[in-house]
Q: What sequence folds into this?
């Protein structure tokens, strides 16, 4: 799992599973402490995800809301969306709406 900090955006690439959750959790909380902006977690480059990883994102969403900010997931592909629905974590996280193109 690669994690790139890009302002208020974290870009995740690779397999996001139990092995990478601690690194992602630390990066998210560091970004929440060090920045007053809302946070975007870009999942466009995530090739695989498990429920443990999605729970990290759900917990981070709740933590951001406690601080009066939003955490938004960008680029969640079909596999990530399916896991969010199956785990019912879709109720907790905020997905960025895709911009319609003409």
A:
């Amino acid at each position: 799992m690669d994690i790139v900090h890009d302002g208020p955006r974290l870009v995740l690439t690779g397999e996001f599973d139990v092995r990478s959750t601690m690194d992602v959790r630390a990066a998210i909380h560091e970004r929440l402490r060090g920045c007053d902006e809302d946070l975007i977690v870009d999942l466009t480059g995530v090739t695989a995800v498990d429920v443990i990883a999605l729970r990290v994102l759900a917990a981070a969403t709740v933590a951001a809301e406690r601080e009066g900010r939003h955490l938004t997931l960008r680029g969640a592909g079909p596999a990530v969306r399916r896991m969010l629905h199956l785990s019912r974590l879709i109720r907790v996280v905020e997905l960025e709406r895709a911009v319609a193109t003409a």
Strands lie at 2-6, 9-16, 39-49, 71-74, 94-95.
